[in-house]
Amino acid sequence: MAHTNSDDTPPGPSGTAPVSDLNLLRTFLAVYRSGSFTAAAGLLGLSQPTVTAQIRSLERQTGRELFERLPRGVAPSSVAHDLAARVAAPLDALAAVTGHDATAGRRAAPVHLAGPAELLCTRVLPALAPLAAEGVRLRITPGLTDPLLDELRAGRHDLVIATYRPRGRALTAVPLLDEEFVLVAAPAWAGRVKGRIAQEGPAALHAVPLVTYAEDVPIARRYWRHVFGTRLSCPAAVTAPDLRGVLAAVTAGAGFTVLPRYLCHDELASGALVPLHEPDDPPINTGYLVQRPGSPDNPDVTRVRDLLMDVGRAW
C-alpha cells in the first residue's frame, strides 16, 4: 500500500488522532447507518465477528467509545455522530469514484420499499409500474412507521414512506405528500347526522358506530382535537388493520370513520360516501420518504426515489 501523508489521512473525531484505515471507517459508517453490527455485516459482506473486531480496533485508535452496546443493536455516541459527519460524504464520494455502485454485467438487486399498506397499494405500486416494466425489481413491505424505520436502520429496506419525520441523523427524510383527512359515512348515516353536526358538534355522532384501524383510534382522535377542539370519547365499534378494510366497511354502512381523502376520493365522487363535516382547516399529515444517508450502492434505489418524488407532487 502506498504511503499516505498526514494531510490525506481521514480525520478522527474531535480531539482524537486521525484514522488511516479506510476499511475501518467504511465498517464504522455501515454500523452507524444500520444500527447494529449484524446488519452492517450483511451490508458489507463480512462476518459479524469481523465487524466487531474492526469497530474495537477503531475505538482503540481513536481512544473513544463509538457505540453503546444495546440488547438489540447499538446506539452511536456523540463521538460517533461527529465522526460520521466528517467521513460520510468523502467515503460516499470515494465509493462512487471507485465503482462500488456500478452494476454493469450483473443484475441489479431488488429495491426494498416499505410503508403504509393502503398507500403502497393504491398510489405507490401503480406509480412504479413503468420502472417494473423496465426491469427494476421491487420488494414491497407494508407496515407501521416505527418498526419499518427500525428495519430501515438495520438495512432491511432501502426506502420507507413514513407518517412522520424521524429524529436524529441516522436517517434522512424529505416530504413526499400531504394527506388531508375527511370525516365520512355512507349516505344512510349521513342523512341522519350531517345536518346536526353543525349545531351539536361531535355529540351528533355518539349513536353512530365508529370504524377504525386500531383500538386507540389515532386518526379519529387527531381529527377531533384539530377540528372540534376536544377529546374523542367514542370507542371503536369495528377495527380492521388496513384502511382499505375500514373504507369497505364504512361504504357498506357499518358507521363513520376518518380517512385520507386520496383513499376515498372515488367513493366521495360517486356518492357512495358523504363528507359529514367540511371544516375550513382540515387536518393534514405529511408523509416522508426516508432512507439511510449517502448514495445507495444500487442505482435502482435512486430511480425509485426520484420517481416517487416526482409523482408525489401530484398526490
In words, what does this structure look like?
Helix content is 43%, strand content 17%. With 315 residues, it is an alpha/beta fold. It has 3 domains: 6-97, Arc Repressor Mutant, subunit A, CATH 1.10.10.10; 111-171 and 292-312, D-Maltodextrin-Binding Protein, domain 2 (3-Layer(aba) Sandwich), CATH 3.40.190; 179-285, Periplasmic binding protein-like II (D-Maltodextrin-Binding Protein, domain 2, 3-Layer(aba) Sandwich), CATH 3.40.190.10. The strands form 3 sheets. Strands 3, 4, 5, 6, 9, 10 and 11 form a 7-stranded mixed sheet that branches. The protein has a two-stranded antiparallel ribbon with strand order 1-2. Strands 7-8 form a two-stranded parallel ribbon. Strand 3, helix 5 and strand 4 form a beta-alpha-beta unit. Helix 2 (37-44) crosses helix 3 and helix 5 (117-133) packs across helix 11. The model is unreliable at 1-9 and 101-106 (pLDDT under 50).
Biggest beta sheet summary: 7 strands, mixed
CATH topology (fold) name of the largest domain: D-Maltodextrin-Binding Protein, domain 2
Give the overall form. Answer: elongated
* Structural domain tally: 3
Number of helical stretches of at least 4 residues? 11
Helix content: 40-55%
Mean pLDDT, as a whole number?
A: 87
* Extended strand count: 11
